[in-house]
Structure formats: C-alpha cells, structure tokens
Amino acid sequence: MGFMFEGMEPTRTQTLEFSPAAGGGGESVVEIELNAIDNDPGAVQSGHYLWPGASSMVQFLVDIMYSSEINSSANVDSISKSREILSSLSVGSILELGAGCGLVGLASLQLWGSNNTGSPGSSLKQVVFTDHDPGTLKRASDNYEATQKKRQRKNRTDGAVLQNNDELKVAFESLSWGDEADAVRLKSQLVEDGGFDLILGSDLIYCCEVVRPLLQTASSLLNKESAFFLSQSFAYDPETEDEMDQACHDLGLKRTILLDSSDKGNQHYQKQISGFLKIQVFEWSQ
C-alpha cells in the first residue's frame, strides 16, 4: 500500500541522533538525515512513514554496542544476550527487510561500518535495503544520499562517520516475502557465501498472514551462522504469536525474545516509544 502515498502526503526531513543509554558520555554515535511522511502511521501499512519500531531498534543496537552500564536488570539481560549473539557473528553483510524509509539500515552502516573503536569491527562489505514498494526504496535511497552528504559536509571524525571504504557496497533491491525465486535471485546477485550475516527488520508484522512469508524469506536469506533481529511497536494477538511459533518450528528456526516492554525493568525503552516494544531474534535451531 505504500506506493499509494508517494507524493500525496506532506513530508518532513529531520536529523535523528542516537546516543548510548549509559556510559557513552551522551555523545551521539548515529546521526541520520531522514525524510518521511509528517504524521503518525496509525494503522496505515506504508513504509513512507517513520515507524516507532525502527527508532527503537536503532536505540537498542546503539546500547548493545556502546552502553557500558544499563540500570535495570531486565535491560542487563537483554543487552547481554544480544551482545553475545552479535559477538558470535562476522558481520560482512547486512540486509534490512521491509526497509521503508531506511532508518535501521542507515544506522547499521554507521554502527558496523565505523572506524570507531567502539564499533564491533570494520569487516562490513555490504548493506542491502529491501522492500516490495519501489517508492519506499527510492525514499530510502534519497535518505542515504542526504545522510552521506550531511556527514561529508560536517567532516566528522567520530563514531558517526562511515569508514572510507571503496569496497563497501550499498544496494536498494525489490523483494517480495514468501517468493522463494525472488530470494534466490537476490542471493545470487549480491551474496557470495550463501546468505547474509545479519538481517534486521522493524514493525514488519501487521497481521497473522504475513508471518510465514516473512520468516520464509528471512530463513532463505540467512547463512548458517547469522541472525534476524526484529522489533515491534505493538503487541501481537494470540493467533499471530501461535503462527510465529509454528512457522519457526516448520522452518527450523529458534525464536528468542530479547526485550518485552510489558515486563518490568524496561523503562528506558518505554520512554523511547511511549508504548509497547518487543525485540526478538531468530536463529537456526541447533
């Protein structure tokens, strides 16, 4: 549905900055120039809006990589588990599913492509933004260009500056969930070692019917030792929860809930979105 809103709604360009929740000195480590429809998406299924799950995912990733201390025990557990998973990955390639405006993918470029010592490393070679809507892919591409130009103008040398690396490739590709041929095409064109090292997504599941196509595509694009991190800013109904568990079982995936704002001790992330937040990770079952 996103293409229906292209050029029809007023948009706003804003600079989004993210700093660690604790121990980072309050200095931003991610800075994105982002244009999106200037309104709350509500129930509209369009990637032209900035969905709250995207901002929350970026904040969560920043905290994983840069926060030296987290106050609440629940956050300690979720951050610790996430760090353990990410530290086991060699992140040379990143894919964003349902990229929309591209915020999560743009942040991953700065987090994994940074030459700052706080970054997990500088082995990143490729970031791919995917969506079924060519209009949102164009918006994500425009946001990438705007972010790059702004950072070049500022000539910054801190953690928000992408490492100068001629080998780092950025691509914007159409992808339909549940279409195995489409996933095979994407892998054959862009990935040499059989799959992506890290897959990211935010606010992708809006009804039960998209669960299996989404997870089927994610499983087709994961390599043997990679992970799919997914954030959600609204609660699933019981039918959707059951479908996720069944789809994971059928596809050989393990689903781990890293953070659920309905649990006590997650006040920091509740403040970020003023509502619900769930972050989960999907990996291959042992």
Automatic annotation (TrEMBL):
The protein's superkingdom reads: Eukaryota
Q: Which Pfam families match?
A: Methyltransf_16
Q: What is this protein called?
A: Calmodulin-lysine N-methyltransferase
